[in-house]
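An example makes the point: we let one protein speak, the chain in one-letter code, the fold tokenised, and here it is:
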Amino acid sequence: MTRWSLPTDRDGRWRTGQLVLVPLVRHTWQTVLAPLFVEGGIGVSYLHDPAPDASTRWNFHDTVAIGALVGPLQRYELSLRLVHQSNAGLRKPNPGMNSVQLRFALAF
């Protein structure tokens, strides 16, 4: 679950909650310094209140990432993720949204 809060063209802010379900496929290989991985997946996203210029609550959510397992016992993940979400042109307008994310996570 993600919570968004962004300024709008009007006076005020756009706020919404987002629920994303993306099955990811990961390939990991061992290097001298740390295990590296690449992963990617396509899933769905639901926005509680779509952006003012968007036409759908449901969107496709694509993720591609590269990262490393670091720290003691490689229990932490550090990754750079590229994310794209849009309705794939099923309805107009389809502004889509791209983001770059730096992620630090505890690996189980």
Remarks:
- The two ends are 19 Å apart (CA to CA).
- The domain at 2-106 is CATH 2.40.160.20 (Porin).
- The first strand starts at residue 2 and ends at 7.
- The chain has one domain: 2-106.
